[in-house]
Design goal:
It is built from 18 helices and eight strands. It has 409 residues and is an alpha+beta fold. It has three domains: 125 residues, no CATH class; 125 residues, SH3 type barrels, CATH 2.30.30; 150 residues, no CATH class. Strand 1 and strand 2 form a beta hairpin.
Length: 409
């Protein structure tokens, strides 16, 4: 460089122009040097390291390659080179040094950001991540890092001590809390959701207000991402899950069974006492043999004790077709292989409605799988609806167009 400068002086070029040429040549030399070193490290050194990482027996370190963390680290080298060459720019050395410092700080911020992403990806490969996601916590760390980096950059540009800038943080915090109110609420809500174990990744939640009915796929600082069963994605503000109500089906999965709670409506005009012929017919049904034997003995003894006149069925106790039907359904679901027989099983009457008398089946399937649950539930009600007529009962159904046509005929 000295040789070039002397040559330019000897041929009579103005000293100011020579200075500009010197700075340009120095800058070009630094750019070339940085590109050369950067190319060498990335194309040779990083390839060797990456090959080792991919081929070793550990799988978690592959995430480092995926997020290009090593390339981020290599990007610091040009900043260090320029910082050390700053004295060669003489009058502009302070400006070059500040520029290099800011560049290095920004690259360090990007390195920390990618490093936190690597930690998050590695953590999510473990089952505990479903119970205790750390995405929100890492986002808080990122925000803190961004604030610190911002303070360092401003302090470097102003030539001030970073601690001096902290004096104005109080006023800044008031403005910050007003502008980023939703983010702060989301942050607090995210902490409550995870710390109280209200929500986990993989939970099936139902929140109709936001059109959410599916599995939680991510919990971030301010939002919860839900993939619905139709594969659409819904993003819910985290604070909405604290302030509003939502249904979490995790308890059902942990219980190991899904509830059946459905009724059929019996036409009340078809309800009657059982005749002798009906009782003899019912005795041939395997699921009713024990019930009828016990019930007949109980009713006969009761009527004898009360000395009731049984010529009129209104006197005393008698079997009814609806009661016998209910007993049959109860014995049927007790013997159904798709239900949890050690859990609560009920066949009950509900209050009569304008649609008839509801007979409700309440129980739990032996599986939580949606398809199997629907198959079991349908199988039960297929059978129940098919046998209603055997008890002299009719299922209530509102008149259809065909019924009205038949009536007209």
């Amino acid at each position: 460089m000295n040789f070039i400068m002397k040559f330019l002086v000897n041929i009579g070029i103005n000293i100011k122009i020579i200075n500009y040429i010197y700075y340009v040549l120095t800058a070009l030399f630094l750019i070339g040097l940085c590109l050369l070193i950067n190319l060498f490290v990335k194309k040779i050194v990083l390839k060797i390291i990456s090959k080792y990482i991919i081929n070793n027996r550990f799988k978690w370190d592959d995430v480092i390659i995926k997020h290009k963390l090593l390339e981020r680290i290599v990007n610091v080298i040009p900043g260090i080179i320029v910082y050390n060459f700053a004295p060669y720019f003489y009058n502009y050395d302070e400006l070059v040094r500040k520029g290099a410092t800011i560049y290095i700080i920004i690259i360090i911020m990007l390195i920390i950001n990618e490093f936190l992403n690597v930690i998050n990806d590695i953590y999510r490969s473990f089952p505990i991540s479903k119970v205790r996601p750390i995405t929100g916590l890492l986002q808080v760390v990122k925000i803190v890092v961004y604030i610190i980096i911002g303070i360092l950059i401003i302090a470097d540009l102003m030539g001030k001590d970073p601690l001096v800038l902290l004096g104005g943080i109080g006023a800044f915090a008031a403005v910050f809390s007003f502008v980023f109110k939703d983010a702060i609420l989301g942050f607090i809500a995210g902490i409550q959701l995870t710390s109280n174990d209200m929500l986990r990744i993989g939970d099936w939640i139902d929140m109709s207000k936001y059109g959410a009915d599916g599995d939680v796929v991510d919990i971030t600082l301010t939002t919860v991402v839900v993939q619905n069963f139709d594969k659409t994605i819904v993003t819910i503000p985290a604070y909405a899950l604290i302030s509003d109500s939502f249904k979490n089906w995790r308890g059902m999965k942990e219980f190991g069974g899904r509830r059946i709670k459905r009724a059929i409506y019996i036409d009340v005009n078809s309800i009657s006492f059982c005749t002798h012929e009906m009782i003899e017919k019912f005795k041939k049904i395997d699921l009713l043999k024990d019930y009828l034997a016990d019930k007949e003995y109980e009713i006969e003894n009761y009527n004898k004790e009360k000395s009731l006149d049984e010529m009129l069925q209104i006197n005393g106790r008698h079997l009814t077709n609806i009661g016998t039907f209910r007993a049959y359904v109860m014995n049927y679901i007790k013997n159904h292989p798709g239900l949890l027989t050690d859990r609560l099983l009920i066949v009950r009457q509900l209050a009569p409605e304008d649609k008839g008398l509801p007979i409700e089946i309440y129980g739990f399937t032996a599986t939580t799988d949606w398809v199997q649950y629907e198959d079991i539930q349908s199988d039960i009600f297929d059978h129940v609806l098919a046998v209603v007529g055997e008890f002299g009962l009719r299922v209530f159904q509102k008149p259809s167009g065909r019924d009205l046509d038949n009536l007209k005929s």
